[in-house]
## 1
Amino acid sequence: MHIMVVGAGSLGLLFAAKLASQCSQLTMVTRTTEQASELAEQGIKLEGEASQTAKSTKSIVYSSYLEETREDIIPNERQVDYIFLMVKQTAITDELVTYLRHQMTDQTFLVCFQNGIGHEQKLSQAIAYDKLLFAVTTEGAKRNGLHSVRHTGRGITYFGVIESNKQLTPNNQHIFFVQMLKSAGFRAELSNNMEVRIWSKLVINVVINPLTAILRVPNGDLLRSEWSRSLMQDLYEEALKLANLKRIALPDKLWDTILTVCEETKTNHSSMLQDIEAARQTEIDYLNGRLVKVAEEWDLVLPTHDMVYRMIKAIEN
Ligand SMILES: NC(=O)C1=CN([C@@H]2O[C@H](COP(=O)(O)OP(=O)(O)OC[C@H]3O[C@@H](n4cnc5c(N)ncnc54)[C@H](OP(=O)(O)O)[C@@H]3O)[C@@H](O)[C@H]2O)C=CC1
Ligand SMILES: CC(C)(CO)C(=O)C(=O)O
């Protein structure tokens, strides 16, 4: 099986490092030539896991998006079975989508790992829905430097389709693919409930991420004050109203899950706080910003989401 990982950030490096020994070919596409060269020289360093240091990733072929798109995009010589799209939502440009299409044949599936919503619409305009798989993962990863990554939390990854009323046909290729992820040490499952899974993760992110980024606190600190808890509750209830209108049956215990995530990741800086600290654009447009827009289509106002959205945009500026 030939896997291509696009985006050598936190999640991309983690998955590539662990999958390298399980598939017949793994191609990793970085953004910059500098990172591709460093990875080709040093391999991926999986911090904290002694058995899986740089050496295990020697077989990976590294290439750089900027280098490849400088001239005409050359389609991949060997058919790619699955492309793991592991860039932030903000990096999914028209140019990147064109590049991805050139890497795909009729047999290739594009697997999208992004948090939030919005990318599915953009990608489905260029790539047939039956070639798109969506992944919801609770794995945690943090890149340090260009070739080093730490596995910060073990989780589970669900894969499935999201076109309404369509179920994932568990063909042999997908079953083999999930088996390969399991052999690489990941918990992985095919799911026929992706909309609910995507929205459950979305609600967790829209409650925790903006507040940690505005207050500049680790996830656990949100639980320490009644004031931040009440803001969390407002964000949660507004999101629930929208989900109910859309008839998305979120789990009854989602609020408890949010509190548990804060507790279990209490010292973590959320991805949005990390983006703000590094002066990077955040994924707010695809989280609270997107909820506000979708709510407008239903004549619903989400005042707390609108307020945190505007605050993050102001901080980003
Ligand atoms: N990290 C985690 O634990 C989790 C992340 N996610 C989601 O997964 C997605 C990726 O997150 P994460 O790995 O943390 O993000 P990172 O920012 O760490 O990694 C994204 C990578 O994409 C690269 N990139 C950007 N544009 C291109 C391009 N055109 N071609 C190739 N590479 C490109 C970036 O390169 P450069 O650095 O050079 O700009 C960067 O290395 C996000 O949507 C996030 O919400 C979901 C669950 C957990
Ligand atoms: C669950 C949470 C909030 C963990 O930090 C996360 O997914 C993120 O930071 O984006």
## 2
Amino acid sequence: MTEAYVALEGGHVIEGRGRAPGTARGELVFTTAYTGYEESLTDPSYEEQVLTFSYPLIGNYGVREERFEDDRVHPRAVLAKELTEDVADWLAEEGVPAVDHLDTRDVVTDIRDEGAMKCGIAVGDDVTEADALEQLEQCKGMSEHTDIGSQVSVDEPVVRGEGNDGETVALVDCGAKGSIVDSLLARDAEVHVLPYDATPEDVASVDPDVLFISNGPGDPANYGAAIDLVQEFVGETPVAGICLGQQIVAEALGGTTEKMDFGHRGVNQPVLDLESGQVVMTTQNHGYTVDEPGDHLEVTQINVNDDTPEGLDGIDHDIITRQYHPEANPGPEDTLDFFDDVLAMADERAQRAVPADD
Ligand SMILES: NC(=O)CC[C@H](N)C(=O)O
């Protein structure tokens, strides 16, 4: 059997079964999702993290590219109770170390007690505990990855749905899930996908009906260029954001964000809409949260479990953001109307911009 060692912050090393070889390090997090492993594994927001699945069997319905959110696997390594052959082979092809036959109940309990932590992984025929500990030694905290956007963003602008007669969206790609772009295209938007460090001139040249900040990995404070864009365009252009996007919008407008102990990752996070009183089930993947929204944003939705902000609206400007993933891949699909609301907000602006007929 291939050796597999996982070194946890503090130096405790656990042993499992090696399913895909290699060494890796990253922030150890867990998802409670019981479906959607292909979507999670290809979600750019997992960059620089080691993903533990708490659901005990991962891979039971195969691996299909049509369910991918991006063209590669993003977590640095994968931990599970049991991985099927399909998933183990896929991770091996991608060069992403994988370990199973772990007691993931213990791993998850450690993360819940201690918070998301650094870890080091070593998997292979000749690896030792020392290899995993060496990886741990080199592991950085998430906030120390100061240019993480460059690892997940497009390098050059890309236009999707060119000529569509719906609204024009400038999507700042901080590591956007593919299904966010698809959700906009399905509503006939023309989507200009811009690099995470796009300049105000880049956005102005698109003349968008909405500036949309995507999801993405790491600390929102490390996305200075996107924060500047929100400050530059708010009031003139409607602004929307998902996940990291919500955090960036808050940072830009005088709010604050903070790191959570172990975050929200799963597909059944309950969210209360404060105006309607309705609760929806949501897909989530985040380790930071908005702490104070500031004077320009109002909290419209909260997490039922811990009251953290899940939706923000602009008080004096056209802004809507969500902390969860309304594109709902792999579901549940309670939240898709977010895209209709964003495009309706964009359409109002587009109508205002058209000069009235004499
Ligand atoms: N999915 C995301 O956009 C994650 C946002 C941010 N990186 C966090 O962990 O909170």
## 3
Amino acid sequence: MESSRPVPSASPDTTYPASDSDVESNATSAYDVAPMDLKYSDGELSWASADSSSHVLRLKDEEIAIVTAKAAGGYQVLYIPPPETSVDKQPFELRSISLTHLPGPFLDAHLFKALPTWLDPADGKNIHVLVSTLSGTGLAPAFYDAVLLPLLTAVGLSSSSYTTIKTESADSVKDFAKSTLLAGANAGKQQTVLMLSGDGGMVDTINGLLEDEQRSSNYTKPVLVQLPLGTGNALFHSLHKTPNPSIASPYIQGLRTLLYGTPKPLPILSAEFSSGTRVLSNEGQTASPIPKSTLYGAVVASYGLHATLVADSDTTEYRKHGRDRFGIAANNLLFPEGPEGKAFPHAYRAEVTLLRGQDEIKVPRKTHGYVLATLVSNLEKGFTISPDSEPLDSQLRVVHFGATSGLQAMEVMKAAYGNGSHIGMEWQGEAGVEEEGKTMKLGYEAVDGVKIEFQEPGEDWKWRRCCVDGLIVGVEEGGWMVVKKVPQGRECVDVVIDA
Ligand SMILES: Nc1ncnc2c1ncn2[C@@H]1O[C@H](COP(=O)(O)OP(=O)(O)OP(=O)(O)O)[C@@H](O)[C@H]1O
């Protein structure tokens, strides 16, 4: 094992050649390792370093993004090491190792062979990379520069083969979808978008494509590939519901899906509202009308604690906390200050009706804590709100419970973080709630739709806010929302999944 010999990197700068698929950079270490000195077992490639026969370098399967064969011979291994613990550091860094030889089983597992159809520009396909600059904690531009650009170069996709769009405002994604994508889809053009965003990038794209309903008979669904750069990344984690245990990093999962996945129609839901409803943006300062009073989503439509939490936590200040923003906002919502100290969370007044075939089933309570219709299993990686939902199963499910104490609502949420064990939960209604002294039960049912008629009084829509995939709407006094699944065959995009 002592014969590993580091050799200098071919090109000592960090620029990536546009036309050559071999990537060399500062982060590249090159090794000429004799085949007999390389070991690949238990998902780990290892070999001895040059300076000490006892020091063994190790590379785990789960760290490897891709292996390419170099034109000049030998191989390039691109990998993302585990993130450093320091919070100031980026959670991703693409490193590269050049090796003259690699074991056959390792190559069988990782060697890249050809571009998938959705990344192959040969047939005039339009490929776009959409970088949502404010998604999550703002890491998408850095991910593009440090990871995606060099990886695409390594697989032979030079930056001139695609266009890169960096968002400049909250309207950038929707504008791009309405102009470029919709026009291309209606002209029958094949288009692929690599989305460096969270669920917001997806919902803006879907609404941009659907809101004018101008679909031609030639309409060709754009293919979207998600790279999880948002906060919750609900759709991404739900589509990767059974994570390959050998891939810990969602970035590596996303990159492997990008190169080896399969495009499938993405089921979507519609949320139709009464005419006075407005989309609230800019921390609630801007209220915009909704075209045809209908929004579309691929994840969730909700009212009650979930919607209020998403709305309250979507401020510049809260966003700095990343995923923790939900927890901080939840504390204020679940344990508000009352006249005598901590009070119960708001009891949301509405009539909720579940729609199933021709049946309309009224939920027998006047006040609610949580009403959430979803097409997916997870709202975050570890938050399994609908454990029965399978990727792309096209089934709308509703999770709901009545107004309750903050502590009890927290118990439900904790159980959802515990692999979806909130399903079937029962508890005694506390003093002061509508169902006081009764057995309260978490409702969970497969439905065709759900209708909510709001009975909260007053002009302020604070307690009549709903969430559709992170978009927040305010419904007018006496207004309503009807959520349904968009029929199969009316999907507007394909999404690449890891199957
Ligand atoms: N340059 C920008 N200026 C203003 N708003 C932006 C800009 N870039 C992106 N946005 C907005 O930021 C939001 C980011 O949403 P996105 O869902 O991608 O991330 P997230 O909310 O952090 O993640 P998730 O929805 O997965 O929890 C979107 O509403 C998008 O329109």
